Amino acid sequence: MQVDNQKVRNIKQENLIKPRNLKKIENSTNAKNSLITQTYSQRSVMNVFEKYQHDRLTFVQAVADLASRETNIQALQSVDVITLLKPLLLDSVPGVQQAAALALGRLANYSQEMAYIMVNNDILPQLIYSLSEKNHFYKKASCFLIRAISKHNSELATAVTNSGAVNALVSCLEDFDPSVKEAAAWAIGYIARHNEELAQVVVDAGSIPLLVLCVQEPEISLKRIAISALADIAKHSPEMAQAVVDADTIHFITMYITQLDNKLQRQICSCLAHIAKHNIDLAESVVDMDILPNIFICMKSPDPYVRKNASSLICELTKHSPDLAQLIVNSGGIVPIVEYLKDSTGNSRMPALMALGYISAFSETLAMSVILAKAVPVLAVVLDEEVEEHLLAACSWTIGQISRHSPDHAKIVADNGILIKLLYIIKATINENTNSDLFIKTKRAMKAIILKILNIELLDPLLEVDTPYCVLKHLVAQYAKLLPYDIASRRAFVISSGLAKIQQIAMKYAPQLISADLAASNKSKVNEEDNHYADEASSTNNSKLAEAIRTINSCYPEEIVHYYSPGYSTLLLEKINNFKYDGSHKEESNGDTIDNSNSSGLQTELQTSSNDSPNTDNTEAEENVQEENSSSQDVLNSGSDENINNNSDELT
To answer: Where is this region: Disordered (predicted)?
Structure first.
């Protein structure tokens, strides 16, 4: 009985426990179902946001990729892509922000219109707001966007500075990441390069010391861009250049000029040239670093931009004073300049041309050093090869600086055939624009050469009737100075047909110097092309040209001057045609001879008709006639082949 009672109690207990366990199980199941439902709901929501985030990132990356090709810019602008990218600059996802800044930077880099749209849509304030708080990837993209907007013109660069971007960029120069420093330095350089006001803003923000620190960083690319930014600051004014020099910039950048990195050498030479160009004090501060030997080495670099920038530095150093020019010469700098001028082409030749001109301008000795370096033949080649007016003008100016010192300098220049080349340039430009820099410099160079030449044989190729008056007046004046004192030159001048050409020039520009009969006989021969000289000739009747022609004619007997005058043979023909035989002289019965007296009378008649104008009482002319009495017949017989043939043709 007791056992049965115990079983009954156990069964009752089990019946009581089962409902409790069932409730626990049921509660647990409900909790699990609720958790599963909640997890599914959260996951569904997160999937939506993840998809949105992924789509935003995909969108900005796709736009950035499209913006990397210039052909897509117009299409992107048509769909108003900037409005879509603007909110993404403040996105909570760093990758989206970075891609949005990169896309905007590429758009602004290709199109100035897009840059204006960004400024007008207040993109810059949003960009700068988050610039100081984000990671280095976003900072790099933001600096790129600022640079892309600033590069187009000073107006956009001013808008960038007004937005407070310069201070943000200067703070990026202190960043630990070199790539961020590089992007910031690049943007600062693009802002400063436009004008002095923007450069002053950059300087006032304290950028120069930080840029000098960037120069000392081990990364080569950072050195290049920092030096380039310093050059963009220094190029505007002496004050800006002095601010750069005061930061001990020259010392630090010249340390790396020997490094075998062409791009770095380009920037170093360019920065030093921008510093040295302003005044002699800054130029001497550059020279004091003993950089000239290394600069001459750079002029032999295989990189054309290194050679050009090194040549520009030499040019900027030589222009300030004779002492600096002499220092360049003593250091052996002329030969590298001439070799560079010979090997280069196009605009690259400009700094070398100017450097040679500056050196030659200071003194006769320096000009002779340029000549001894065989620069004159190279200058002649430049005149033949180049077609750009500014290069030809610079070359003509340099030639004039070399020639103006002495007859020896001018003779060496003329021996290389440069006078004819300069005359060709004047003829080519005189009908286009007489106020052009090329025409003015070429005319001055020709004048400098002509007035120093003492050998008339070097001037003979220029003496033509169609030679422009601006050259001809100096040329004839030089003949007038040389011929009265040199008998051999006077004889050679006749032999080379110079005297005949002088008479043709006199007929064109100073007809009052020609006898009345000769002038009348030539009046019908004046062609229509010479009509435009009538006013000029009438205005120069008492000019230096007429006086010079008169001086030249006075060096020869009057008969010789008449003989070489245009139309003299025609005048003789007219006199022969007008001669009338009076019939008073009878032939002898045998018809073989003529009365000697009649023969002598006819000879006298012809002699009288050949000497048209009477001798003048000019004392100088009489003295020269006496000197030439012994040699005039030889001149007529042997030295006037060309004119005799011409006169014979006319008589025929």
So the answer is: 584-652
